[in-house]
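Retro notes
What went well: the complex prediction finally ran end to end.
Inputs used:
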Amino acid sequence: MTKTKLDLLVRAIGKKWLWVQAALAFAFLYLPILILIIYSFNTSRFNAVWRGFTLDWYRSLFSNTGATIATSSSAGILPALNNSLLIAAISTVLATIFGTMLALALERFHFPGRKAVEALLFLPIIMPEITIGISLLVFFTLVFRIVENLTGIRLNLGLPTVIIGHVVFNISFVTITVRARLAELDPTLEQAAFDLGANEWRTFWRITFPLIWPAIFSAALLAFTLSLDDFVVTFFTTGVGSMTLPLLVYGMIKFAVTPAINAISTLMLLASLLLVVSSLRVQKS
Amino acid sequence: MKSILPDRKSQIEHRKSYNLLLLLFPATAWLIIFFILPVLIVLLYSFLERGTYGGVTWIFTLSNYQRLFSGLFLGVIGRSLFLAFLTTVACLLVGYPLAFFIATRPPRWRNALLLLVIIPFWTNFLVRTYAWIILLRSEGVVNTALQSLQIITEPLNLLFTPFAVAIGLIYGYLPFMVLPLYSSIERFNFVLVEAAQDLGANDIRTFWRVFLPLTTRGIVAGSILVFVPTVGAFITPDILGGAKTVMVGNLIQNQFMKARDWPFGSALSMLLTVIILIPVLIYFRVSDDTQ
Amino acid sequence: MKRLLTFLLLFVMSATVVFGCSRTGGNQQQVLSIYNYASYIAPEAIAQFEKENNIKIQYDTFENSDTLYAKLKQGNPGYDLIFPADYMVKIMAKEDMIEPLNIQNIPNNKNLDPKFINQSFDPGNKYSLPYQWGTMGIGYNLKGTKTEINSWAAMFDSKYTGKIAWQDDARYTLAAVLMYLGLDPNTTNPEEINKARDLLIKNKNIIAAFVPDTGQALLDQGEVNLTMEWSGDIFQVMKENPNLRYAIPKEGTIIFSDNMAIPKGATHKELAEKFINFALQPEVGAKISNFTRFGSPNKVAVDRGLIDPKDLKNPQIYPPAAVLGKMKFLEDVGKATALYDRAWTEVKAGAGK
């Protein structure tokens, strides 16, 4: 009898505590964001002390006067954001597809060299970004030189090379995340489908995929986030004119990371929140 | 079921290996071409001499590796490992209940909540870190709030302390823990919980003996995704900690940038990679064997 | 879930389209690719050059000269004009990364103050011409220090415990300490370097932080009262916070200049030289300096009073010759950089937590 009482107590406290903990965690996550948003209205150029309210930074994002990046660094922001989103979207899609395929291969098959592939997978997250960045720069330059000598075609660093670099580190994150879920999947479900005559492709789409979808979704979110905010690897693999938002921001450190960056971040936040809300609506139906 | 003919079986075997290759190919090819090959270049560099002003000169030497094994650099590596370990544990403690919470909401809320967890990290990293400075500084939000509530009289020294660094790192890597944990917890079959309770276990016991072990893969995945990058983290410790300590990430960055000693930076990267890779591999070998 | 996915895809695609429209289509014009710090040029200057020459300027940004070097070392990805710091010009010249300038195309170089040309890092200005110059000194908050500062000694004064910030840069900070100790900031003598290191370690406890070029923000916030910073950075914040001051320490300090240079492999060399010439016009030079609040090397601009008179009369921005004489450029020390690097690591590890 005391066991049941303890259970009820644990359950009651547990439930409350779970909610409190979640609320605190979200508060923790959003407290700096709140500051970030507030300071996007700051009259001071320096992201340091509150000096007054203004919408100027938001205006500067869209004014495009003379299309110069130097205009308090604001005019270059939208093109940079454009690049960042494009790179993030493409590299996420590629990394998620490749990573999931790799996770399936590692989890469902035994083959010689499996351990080697597993080790290979960890390297991109272990290796410091700057090492990856510099190695890619050296590699690409070498390859371009060879190609130019052989065929006369002059390739250059640019968006494609950045995307390649992003996919490299994103594959590992995706594979590890999806694998964790695959490992806990009940293999008898797939076995049953096989026995019933379904081929592998069908089995995957109808049975495995829906079951691992949350993992794939999480992995894709992670990859997108990593790509959007990446600086080091991006820096070494960009070419002329393929500035991304993080690159732009780091170039601003010497003088001031102005509230224009807060402004664009706030706008991105708003857009994402809209996405969340509408996804809720969409699922309702 | 038992009516599979021999040649169908070999057909399946053949299809299976074909499928395997197909699945393996894109990711491994990508990593080999765009990661292994470039990294081999870095490995090569670690055996060369630095150029007078930067870059490399083609003289082979082991001196870069010899330089590594001094108390100074090993101490730096050790400190980074320790900090990464603490951050991982903290992220686990904060992230696990959060992931559990999200996974136990009604289905249509789960993706929304996950997105809410990750959306803060679509803002710019630097500005987020500056926001922490605004929060933690002597006349910052936290101190002003605590003082006006009269919980403290003097401002707390929060910025440029290990505390600030810890907060910054935990904040930055929390999603890396929550997302894998979530995908592991989410699939948990609560029938097992009922079964355990029918067998007489109470809630705490059920959690410890049934729930937790079955989410191990998620815990491991999350821990690796937090621990490994955190060892090399240096921007957050610099900005929030006042750069008063050198992390191995600083060291490596320094070698490639200010010191322009690429060979030494390469050697350091190689050493770091080996140091982290070995325990991870051992763990996986052990866990595979016990399955 | 499929719907969510479709939604996400649509969102990303539409966002890309919307923002993609902000890019100017039509690439018939020539494009001059510039690689510089962000905000390191007056807004009107770029627009003016674009209009006068009917070209477009692609302005990319880097963090500092070292990252510039790392990026360009493997080859020029397509930049026509770069802005390396003084010591970096020498390195890049030695490593054959920059082109000699055709001075015939840059007649405005006669506007330059002789004090800033023909320096040791680029004898005869074969490769570069100065763009902006400034000094490294102590930015301080008068409200916090209560007294005026004029010496590096203040950075070691326990009166300001926990309110002192140094630059997070091995060379520059050690250089400052070396000058305080009366030594050469470009020394390669390990004993001297270690003296500087030891002094910093001894005073570790009063230092609040080593900062990456953000000292002025901390000063503004009152988080520190003294910080080692570049002149222009402090003067920019002073516009918003009148309590701040800048001091050139009497023991001497580092002077720096950012320079214009053309990387090897630039496709629009003449256009780049045209831009250099343009930047050396007195009006343009003045516009730039009035924006950045660093020193202008353009003598004609100074003489004609085009520079903001407040800045001109300010001995911290335009120090008298006697003070200038005690300043030194930071020079690259080649392999001895490792000595500084090690000393710096020891400073941080020396009393680190």
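What we learned: Chain C touches chain A through 58 residues (CB under 8 Å).
What to try next: split runs per interface for comparison.
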